[in-house]
């Protein structure tokens, strides 16, 4: 570029605003505005003159901004005087019903208008008379012109000028410093060493990408919101005073204290130990900008650790040090920090809430009329902005919250605002030295609600035991049917008598209250007799599941030291050294059939259940009679059983659900129905039992319930009355399916750990409900706490950890006092001496007082900083007819390669993973589309019916596997290659005929493979070879042995390339040669190679062939084409050689898109159909014409870009080559002459492209925009409109060079696949 | 009472959270030192302006002080030359 562009450059701050507007030209969010409330007489004519004069003095206001080569420029604008077009609206609104409201409406209407930066003027005034001596002055300016401080400078000068004019005097000289000096200062900085140092500082500070604290649900699209919600409040005078002169923190200022308070609030709500807040800074101290009304402000990210022992004073001091440090590097733009860190675009925030402190005097005086100024709009709000300001009008400090409506609704914003004000009050009242852990974020009212109202569960229960009510039934209705197991039926009298005799035998062996008795029996009447007998003897039973491995059972027996173990002599139990009782071999007929005497109290243990411990050693949970009695009495009250009910017992006795299955029906005179051993895993066997035995009540773990519903088993269960579900999160889809298939049957969702007597909360599902299924409200005499990290109660809507207290808590872990003490801790909210249990589960209160379960404290699903609700993806999957059930989770099968994986069970028709992903891509944002989907016949379940995550297979990447593809290796080299493929791809095994790219290989992984092949086999593998021979078999056949002539493309081969290199550098390269669909032809970008498209393969239908078109001259022995038309005609001949007639599918990135368009025109003119023309961020020649093409440096940059390095400023070919070699790039393995040719090709392509004249293509162009801001801001896809029949666009949140890299290429492939699928139909 | 260079130094030290009555080097900054680097910000600056207006009847604008933030520059601006 030689000729100077007209106008002036933009400051970096202005450019930030320009690009922000450019991202969404129709958004009014970049409008800023203030309103001055003038009370007194005012002469509108003089006022207009003062305005006109001030605008004349403020050069920055008189600008419009246009796109230009080398970045946007600002051009001066002639502003007409008042009366001749000056943008001032004067109106007398005194006759309106509510003049002030009328003025407000005018202002809001004006603020809602998006501004065309190229047109201007980009400011506007309004002067509204709303009373005899009251005026409202409205001033709107686009953020590209002015920031808040700039507004203040303008307002002050207008007041000064008016005052002078009103006195008949000439206003003094302009107080403003030169805008051009500001531009010069900005330009100097950007070329300075300080700029580079600042950039390095911020990169270093955020190198670890700290998590962004989030107060609300994530939401919003790729674009910032166009509007904002606002809540305003004035702090009570006492709070203002305490913030302004904080006792105990003399050095702290109120902005620092408010910032510290916001950091505390954010840390607590987001459950973070460290927060990153955004600080809008005036960015003018020590600069000429202090006197320039312009856009200068910046936002700086502040990392702030918030420890529970910190005091407000300490936090404020830390904030002050942080701000001081940040300000030293504060000229570096926020937008650039984000860009440097790759944090542009959707879901890639750098900071949480912004805290904007405005200490400036808002008082003005227009001759005799005093005025106060308030801000109406301060720019876009990404998430939440806290404005704190003092207008110096005696009203003290004000705190406004402004929020992105995509993330906060009005109620949520109001709640956050109210809580923050309340917190400020309490923080300052308590004195700044108090540890912050003492403060809750909940208000007193919220605290009372979540601790009290929601936990109002007191109910009187008699002091009984688990067994007492059963013995009462035995006594009063001995003839009633107690138990059914297949053909066997026992009455209460029979069952009681058998159990009583065995109990007497146990007593004779020393069993008494407090003693433990092991029971190792399969599900059978004998098991029920044994459990009752242990309880009747006063002991606590320890279930030993006969299906468990013997060593595990032996460990439990050794740990629990039972008095004896009841078995059946089947050799299931290893020798434990404990006495064994075999009831079948005993003749107990001589013992009385009535209960033995025993000094049993409700405080004695009823059972001991072992649960897995995080350290690997199971721990025995000891539960008292009182605890389980409370649980069963609540259940009978809430969901009463009658004598006619039949309850299914199918849960293995080692899991706590079995406790209510066994004992609840026996306590209530109902019938216990035993499923066959093992039947709990077989939905059809269960359905048969339910049907044949007339079961009315049963339990399912949600995973099993889904299987049960999916397999058509449910239809046979007409007699069911209620189903209880617990053990894991109940998906809403499962509940909805239940309601459809079993209308009239109640579904209850229960939640609770073994440590709190089975269940502590309950929720009854209702058909038609949406959203996550809550775990509900606490049961009788139970308190549920949702606590933050400081153990303070969370208000409704805020996530915390679940703690449980009340009657049902277990006594603790058997023989593990230290472990017990860490999980059962003092309950600070209960009566003195009471305990609470820490669950490790996350949850939050709904406003209605139900708890929603939100996962584990230790199992958060988060991908690339984005929180993902698997339930949402699961819902989308199960909405597809070919999916019956779905589970979505995050896997990391290759180190560092965390990805979302979906597991589905088939519906009808049979699901195809690729197709499922395409359909999801059509309804879900890209990050929510699983990278892989695995079809399973059934979900693997743990013995207790939960989803067995560990047993889920690692996903096989998309593509047809099976048959011949899985052929095992036949030669040592094939063996080595299959092994290396599997290693690099992170797969358990790879077949000889499976393609590297079909299995999910990318060019980066190809580099790893080449390295491993070199190490293991001692041969060079060029990436091009891999394209030609992508399977282990083909590669084994093609690779030369060590010592042989090195294959072409090897780094040492400086001469004419051999066969391998030839193919990889040919004009038409099969990236995937096979497949029966019409091939996709992908045209190279400027550099001439088309390898960049290999990343598409994994996301496209495996039957979709893909050919790359590559530039002539890559071998360095051909002339380069003379026109783009000639090149397109050449490529058309090439593709017709493999596909003589259409329909054709064309794609091109960058220059490749322009070539593809020219090819499409040629094909169409030849009468062929072109059914796909995909343009990847390619812009027509018109947009480039007249602009300088790339020189050597840009061409070398393009070469680096092809190798995946997004970098500029590599000075020489030698250094570029060195970079490629150092970074292990596959390109470094290209022949020297190819590397030498690439820059020439780049330059030539740019030249041809600029000279090209487009003709019209009648079809549709499928466009993909790299939506991140770019320096070439003038580029617009709309420039294609004259040359295409239609244009359909998809935005990708990336820069142009990143478009063909993960994860964007995957998104692109999914979108492309969806379109191709439509064509295939 | 007229504002002096010494009073300016003491008030600045206080605004920066130091106690000028305590011996120590915490507030021993040079008269030419950039006060922004020591933690002076717009709020502290505003409070100094308010204090000097109240206690010494000095009128000075925010920009005047913020443009050249050092004790020496401020003294040149605010302290009347000894007569």
From TrEMBL, chain A:
Highest taxon of the lineage: Bacteria
Query: According to its UniProt record, what is one Pfam family this protein matches?
Result: Thioesterase
Q: Which cofactor does it need?
A: pantetheine 4'-phosphate
Q: Where are the annotated segments for Disordered?
A: 949-970
Q: Which SUPFAM superfamilies match?
A: Acetyl-CoA synthetase-like, ACP-like, alpha/beta-Hydrolases, CoA-dependent acyltransferases
State the Gene Ontology terms under molecular function.
2,3-dihydroxybenzoate-serine ligase activity; phosphopantetheine binding
Q: Which key words are in the record? A: Phosphopantetheine, Phosphoprotein
One GO CC term on file = enterobactin synthetase complex
Which InterPro entries would you find in this protein's record?
Answer: AA_adenyl_dom (IPR010071), AB_hydrolase_fold (IPR029058), ACP-like_sf (IPR036736), AMP-bd_C (IPR025110), AMP-bd_C_sf (IPR045851), AMP-binding_CS (IPR020845), AMP-dep_synth/lig_dom (IPR000873), CAT-like_dom_sf (IPR023213)
Which residues belong to any copy of the Carrier domain?
968-1043
The answer to whether keyword Phosphoprotein applies is yes
GO biological-process terms attached to the record: amino acid activation for nonribosomal peptide biosynthetic process; enterobactin biosynthetic process; lipid biosynthetic process
* PANTHER family documented for this protein: FATTY ACID SYNTHASE, NONRIBOSOMAL PEPTIDE SYNTHETASE
* UniProt cross-references to NCBIfam families, sorted A to Z: AA-adenyl-dom (TIGR01733)
> What name does the UniProt record give this protein?
Amino acid adenylation domain-containing protein
From TrEMBL, chain B:
Looking up SUPFAM superfamilies in the UniProt record yields: ACP-like (SSF47336)
Name recorded for this polypeptide: Isochorismatase
InterPro entries reported for this sequence: ACP-like_sf, PP-bd_ACP
Gene3D superfamilies tied to this protein: ACP-like
Please indicate which superkingdom the organism of origin belongs to.
Bacteria
Q: Where is the Carrier domain?
A: 2-82
Write down a Pfam family by its short name: PP-binding
């Amino acid at each position: 570029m030689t000729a100077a562009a007209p106008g002036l450059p933009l400051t970096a701050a202005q450019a930030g605003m320009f690009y922000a507007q450019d991202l969404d030209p129709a958004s009014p969010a970049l409008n800023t505005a203030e309103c001055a409330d003038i009370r007194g007489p005012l002469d509108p004519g003089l006022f207009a003159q003062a305005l006109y004069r001030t605008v004349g003095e403020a050069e920055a206001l008189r600008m419009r901004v246009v796109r230009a080569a080398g970045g946007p420029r600002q051009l001066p604008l002639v502003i007409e005087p008042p009366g001749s077009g000056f943008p001032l609206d004067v109106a007398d609104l005194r006759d309106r019903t509510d003049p002030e409201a009328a003025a407000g409406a005018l202002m809001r209407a004006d603020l809602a208008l998006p501004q065309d930066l190229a047109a201007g003027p980009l400011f506007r005034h309004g002067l509204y008379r709303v009373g005899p001596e009251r005026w409202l002055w409205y001033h709107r300016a686009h953020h590209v012109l002015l920031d808040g401080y700039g507004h203040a400078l303008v307002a002050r000068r207008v007041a000064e000028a008016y005052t002078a004019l009103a006195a008949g005097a000439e206003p003094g000289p302009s107080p403003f410093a030169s805008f051009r000096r500001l531009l010069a200062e900005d330009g100097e900085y950007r070329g300075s060493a300080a700029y580079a140092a600042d950039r390095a500082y911020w990169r270093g500070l955020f190198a670890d990408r700290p998590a962004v604290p989030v107060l609300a649900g994530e939401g919003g699209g790729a674009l910032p919101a166009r509007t904002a919600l606002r809540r305003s409040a004035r702090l009570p005078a006492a709070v203002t005073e305490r913030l302004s002169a904080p006792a105990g923190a003399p050095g702290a200022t109120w902005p620092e204290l408010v910032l510290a308070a916001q950091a505390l609030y954010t840390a607590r709500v987001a459950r973070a130990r460290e927060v990153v807040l955004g600080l809008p800074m005036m960015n003018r101290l020590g600069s000429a900008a202090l006197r320039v009304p312009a856009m200068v402000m910046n936002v700086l990210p502040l990392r702030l650790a918030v420890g529970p022992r910190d005091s407000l004073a300490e936090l404020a001091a830390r904030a002050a040090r942080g701000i001081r440090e940040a300000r030293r590097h504060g000229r570096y733009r926020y937008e650039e920090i984000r860009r440097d860190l790759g944090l542009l675009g959707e879901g890639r925030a750098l900071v949480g809430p912004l805290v904007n402190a405005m200490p400036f005097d808002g008082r003005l005086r227009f001759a005799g009329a005093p005025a106060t100024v308030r801000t109406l709009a301060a720019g876009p709000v990404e998430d939440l902005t806290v404005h704190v300001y003092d207008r110096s009008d005696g009203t003290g400090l004000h705190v406004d919250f402004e929020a992105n409506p995509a993330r906060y609704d009005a109620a949520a914003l109001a709640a956050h605002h109210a809580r923050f004000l309340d917190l400020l009050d309490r923080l300052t009242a308590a004195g700044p030295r108090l540890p912050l852990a003492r403060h809750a974020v909940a208000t007193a009212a919220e605290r009372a609600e979540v601790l009290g109202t929601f936990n109002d569960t007191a109910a009187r229960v008699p002091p009984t035991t688990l067994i007492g009510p059963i013995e009462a039934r035995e006594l009063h209705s001995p003839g009633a049917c107690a138990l059914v197991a297949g053909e066997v039926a026992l009455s209460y009298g029979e069952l009681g008598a058998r159990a009583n005799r065995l109990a007497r035998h146990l007593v004779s062996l020393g069993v008494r209250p407090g003693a433990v008795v092991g029971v190792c029996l399969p599900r059978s009447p004998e098991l029920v007799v044994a459990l009752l007998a242990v309880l009747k003897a006063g002991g606590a039973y320890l279930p030993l599941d006969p299906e468990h491995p013997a060593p595990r059972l032996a460990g439990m027996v050794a740990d629990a030291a039972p008095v004896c173990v009841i078995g059946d002599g089947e050799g299931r139990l290893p020798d434990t050294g404990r006495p064994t009782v075999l009831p079948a071999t005993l003749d107990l007929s001589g013992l009385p059939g009535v209960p033995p005497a025993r000094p049993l109290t409700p405080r004695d243990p009823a059972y001991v259940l072992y649960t897995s411990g995080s350290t690997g050693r199971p721990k025995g949970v000891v539960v008292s009679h009182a605890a389980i009695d409370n649980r069963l009495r609540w259940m009978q009250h809430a969901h009463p059983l009658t004598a006619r009910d039949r309850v299914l017992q199918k849960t293995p006795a080692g899991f706590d659900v079995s406790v209510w299955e066994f004992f609840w029906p026996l306590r209530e005179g109902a019938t216990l129905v035993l499923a066959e051993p093992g039947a709990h895993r077989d939905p059809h066997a269960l359905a048969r039992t339910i049907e044949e035995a007339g079961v009315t009540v049963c339990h399912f773990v949600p995973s099993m319930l889904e299987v049960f519903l999916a397999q058509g088993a449910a239809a046979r269960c007409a007699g069911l009355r209620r189903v209880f579900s617990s053990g894991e999160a109940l998906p809403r889809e499962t509940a909805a399916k239940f309601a459809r298939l079993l209308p009239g049957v109640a579904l209850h969702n229960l939640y609770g750990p073994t440590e709190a007597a089975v269940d502590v909360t309950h929720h009854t599902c209702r058909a038609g409900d949406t959203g996550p299924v809550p775990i509900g409200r606490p049961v009788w005499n139970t308190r549920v706490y949702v606590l933050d990290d400081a153990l303070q109660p969370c208000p409704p809507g805020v996530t915390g950890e679940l703690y449980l207290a009340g009657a049902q808590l277990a006594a603790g872990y058997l023989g593990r006092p230290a472990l017990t003490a860490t999980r059962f801790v003092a309950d600070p909210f209960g009566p003195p001496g009471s305990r609470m249990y820490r669950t490790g589960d996350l949850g939050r209160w709904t406003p209605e007082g139900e708890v929603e379960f939100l996962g584990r404290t230790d199992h958060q699903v988060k991908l690339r900083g984005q929180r993902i609700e698997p339930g949402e993806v699961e819902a989308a999957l199960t909405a597809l007819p070919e999916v019956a059930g779905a589970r979505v989770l995050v896997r990391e099968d290759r180190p560092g390669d965390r990805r979302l994986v979906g597991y589905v069970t088939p519906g009808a028709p049979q699901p195809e993973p690729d197709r499922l992903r395409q359909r999801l891509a059509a309804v879900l944002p890209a990050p929510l589309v699983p990278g892989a989907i695995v079809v399973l016949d059934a979900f693997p379940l743990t013995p207790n019916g939960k989803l067995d995550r560990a047993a889920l297979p690692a996903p096989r990447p998309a593509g047809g596997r099976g048959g011949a593809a899985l052929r095992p290796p036949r030669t040592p080299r094939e063996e080595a290659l299959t092994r290396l493929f599997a290693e690099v791809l992170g797969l358990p095994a790879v077949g000889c005929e499976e393609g590297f790219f079909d299995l999910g290989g990318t060019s980066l992984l190809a580099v790893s493979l080449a390295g491993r092949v070199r190490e293991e086999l001692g041969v060079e593998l060029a990436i091009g070879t891999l394209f030609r021979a992508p399977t282990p078999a083909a590669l084994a056949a093609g690779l030369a042995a060590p010592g042989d002539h090195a294959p072409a493309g090897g780094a040492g081969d400086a001469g004419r390339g051999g066969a391998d290199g030839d193919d990889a550098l040919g004009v038409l390269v099969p990236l995937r040669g096979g497949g029966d669909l019409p091939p996709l032809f992908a045209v190279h970008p400027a550099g001439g190679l088309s390898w960049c498209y290999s990343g598409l393969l994994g996301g496209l239908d495996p039957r979709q062939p893909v050919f790359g078109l590559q530039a002539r001259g890559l071998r360095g022995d051909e002339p380069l084409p003379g026109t783009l038309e000639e090149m397109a005609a050449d490529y058309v001949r090439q593709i017709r050689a493999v596909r003589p007639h259409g329909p054709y599918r064309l794609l091109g990135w960058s220059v490749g898109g322009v070539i593809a368009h020219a090819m499409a025109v040629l094909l169409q003119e030849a009468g062929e159909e072109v059914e796909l023309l995909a343009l990847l961020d390619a812009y027509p020649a018109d947009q480039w014409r007249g602009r300088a093409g790339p020189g050597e440096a840009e061409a070398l940059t393009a070469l680096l870009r092809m190798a995946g390095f997004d970098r500029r400023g590599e000075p020489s070919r030698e250094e570029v080559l060195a970079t490629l070699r150092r970074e292990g790039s596959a390109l470094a393995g290209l022949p020297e002459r190819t590397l030498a040719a690439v820059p020439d090709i780049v330059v030539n392509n740019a030249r041809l492209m600029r000279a090209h004249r487009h003709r019209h293509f009648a079809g549709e162009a499928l466009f993909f925009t790299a939506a991140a801001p770019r320096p070439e801001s003038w580029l617009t896809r709309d420039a294609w409109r004259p040359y295409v029949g239609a244009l359909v666009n998809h935005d990708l949140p990336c820069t142009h060079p990143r478009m063909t890299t993960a994860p964007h290429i995957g998104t692109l492939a999914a979108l492309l696949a969806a379109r191709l699928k439509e064509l295939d139909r | 009472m007229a504002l002096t260079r010494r009073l300016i130094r003491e008030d600045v030290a206080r605004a920066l959270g130091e106690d000028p009555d305590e011996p120590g080097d915490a507030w021993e900054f040079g008269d030419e030192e950039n006060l922004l680097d020591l933690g002076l910000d717009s709020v502290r600056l505003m409070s100094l302006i308010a204090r000097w207006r109240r206690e010494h009847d000095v009128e000075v604008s925010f920009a005047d002080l913020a443009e050249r933030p050092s004790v020496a520059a401020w003294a040149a601006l605010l302290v009347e030359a000894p007569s």
